[in-house]
Design brief:
Blueprint: H1 2-40, E1 65-70, E2 74-76, E3 83-92, E4 95-104, E5 117-122, E6 126-128, E7 134-136, E8 139-146, E9 149-160, H2 168-174, H3 191-199, H4 204-285
Antiparallel strand pairs: 1-5, 2-3, 3-4, 4-9, 5-8, 6-7, 8-9
Length: 359
Amino acid sequence: MKKYLLLLLAILLVNSAFAQTTKKKGTTAKAPAKAKAASATPAAPAAPVARSLAVAPKLSTKDPSFIGFTGSFVKFGRVSGEDRPFTMTVEYKHWFFEATGTANAGFNTQDLNEDVIVVLAYYEAPGKANDGTDYQAGPFDIHMLLDDEPVRISNLKFTLTGKAAAGATVLGQARTWNYEQGRVFRSQKYSGEIIKAEATAVDKSDIAREEAAARKRTADSIARERKRVDDSIANARERERQRVEQERRKAEQERRRIEQEREDEREQERRRKAAAAQKKRRVVEEYDDDDDYEPAPKKRAPTKKRRPSVEEYDDDDDYEPAPKKRAPTKKRRPPVEEYDDDDDDEPPRKKPAKKRPRN
């Protein structure tokens, strides 16, 4: 059955494309007349800009559009003969509505359940709620299928719910805008679009997957942002750590350089002292232990000559201190000295004074 539907869908899509092309040509031809009518009508004064984000819906097309939903959005009541009440509640993307009515599937009415396919017909009438949520205000008819067999619908009624409730007026206009209920699905003009809507019907599980995907995208976005912030903090910390480490290495290199300079100075001092000691040892080793060695006298600064001091002589020597220089006086005769009888007539000679060695 699916293969049959897909084949039929392909054929109808080709027909639909041809019909849309013809329709666009007709619209293009009628455009100048509309333009003249618009130019003849005086321009209305601009409305004041509302502070609210709400935008009132407005019917914008004469041709309907179609979207399919599975029976997961439909709840059926008790069977009464061949009739069975149902309620279809949809809150999906820009759809906020509730459809109620009576379904009649003949002897298969008892089998109506989530296996049904519902195709919604609507006119484009986009609006916007106060919080900026988009919604559609133009649904006007539904087509229900059970095992590819149509189900008769009666007492159909639409109600916009939640954020779309402000478009109730447009919803009432859509009921008689172009097609009355039940007629649009019998038109061959839109058969391709209807089959496509049946084949791509939305299920609540799809909504759950989309919501899960949206939550995942949000969580991934948060995770990416958190990771970006964490990476930024980690990079900043790493840069600071590298800066501190670089300064520490520079300080360590400077400390080692200073220590090396001090060590080089100490080594030079040790070498200087060792060289001096080696030189002194070489001077001492030039002389044998048996040789008499007197160190060379140290050179002293020249001093004034002074009188030689009295030197010690042996006890047996006669010592007479050198006469002090006196001022010149008149010559007088030397005294007569007495000599021993045993001695010769000549007086004894004086011993020359010993020269005092210079220090």
